[in-house]
Amino acid sequence: MKILVTGVAGLVGQMLARQLCAAGHDVIGVDRRRFADVPAGLHLCHVDLRKRAAEEVFRHYRPEVVVHMATIGHLFAESEERYRVNLGGTRAVFEQCRLHGAAHAIFVGRHTYYGAGPDSPLYHTEDEPPLGLASYPELADLVAADLYAGSALWRMPDLVTTVLRVCYSLGPSGHGTLATLLKRRLVPAVLGFDPLAQLMHEADVVDAIATAIRARPRGVFNVCGPSPLPLSVLVRETGRRLVPIPEPLIAAALGRFGLPKLSRGALGHLKHSIVVDGSAFRRATGFVHTRDEVQAMTEFAAAFPARRPRPA
């Protein structure tokens, strides 16, 4: 099968490309970043998805399946480039799928689409709207990209469209929002709050995307693994130290005293849980995660041991 993967130089993209090449697929990778140790069978194209050169890649290779992962979803930076990459890139990918006869498009989004709020349900299902934009406007471009990809279900009926809303990943590569938060020895928390953190091993994330390629489910699906854990348990089991800070002071403390820098909108994720119901994806594809939360935490902690900060 001829499969095009955008964002292939990201860590999950690299793992997916290697798995697909090992399975005998003809894989085309698109990314502006470098990819060290390119596997045999991967055709790597250094192009911008929004430029004419990307259209030439689609015209030349005419992929049967397109996996779109070239989006920015982390909570640690605010950038004008986010809008152009997330929404502009997604629009360009689906337009090229339509023009060049792709049969299946997979958009890999995030479960943070639903937002974190005090009135959120314990488990989010796929038909719920995004409710966190008022408190976290930085996510607007990623939510817009998710909704645009979902609109292809009725705009492009000949294209099998799969939208995946994947929970946090954790593993030895240290990839992803949650892993970035845990790489420091001190992890901030809002005093009086201990939200649930839903995570899955990064290798299971790759397996879930590969399963979606094989099963070709049409629709929007939450993707998750083991049961969620309280943030305090996750921090303790990875060898870190939780630092509860009163809410009026936390914005001033972040980025100082050894604490990570978070955008103001991300503070809601330290107070309220985002937990998704992944049963629809399991029914549609038969996906079963094979690594539990203990393995994910243990492998991450082994790869990134906590270190005490140097004295000032």
Reading the helices and strands in chain order gives: EHEEHEHEHEEHEEEHEEHEHHH
Strand order of the largest sheet: 3-2-1-4-5-6-11
Kindly report how far apart the N and C termini lie.
Answer: 56 Å
CATH architecture of one domain: 3-Layer(aba) Sandwich
Identify the notable features of this structure and list them briefly.
312 residues, alpha/beta, Rossmann fold, seven-stranded parallel β-sheet, two-stranded parallel ribbon, globular
Short description:
This protein has ten helices and 13 strands.
Describe the structure.
With 312 residues, the protein is an alpha/beta fold. Helix content is 35%, strand content 18%. Strands 3-2-1-4-5-6-11 form a 7-stranded parallel β-sheet, with helices on both faces. It has a two-stranded parallel sheet with strand order 7-10. The chain has a domain of 214 residues: NAD(P)-binding Rossmann-like Domain (Rossmann fold, 3-Layer(aba) Sandwich), CATH 3.40.50.
Topology:
Elements: E1 2-6, H1 11-22, E2 26-30, E3 42-45, H2 52-61, E4 65-68, H3 81-99, E5 104-110, H4 140-155, E6 160-166, E7 168-170, H5 177-182, E8 186-190, E9 196-197, E10 199-201, H6 202-215, E11 219-223, E12 229-230, H7 231-237, E13 241-245, H8 247-253, H9 279-285, H10 293-303
Parallel strand pairs: 1-2, 1-4, 2-3, 4-5, 5-6, 6-11, 7-10, 8-13
Antiparallel strand pairs: 9-12
Helix pairs in contact: 1-6, 3-4
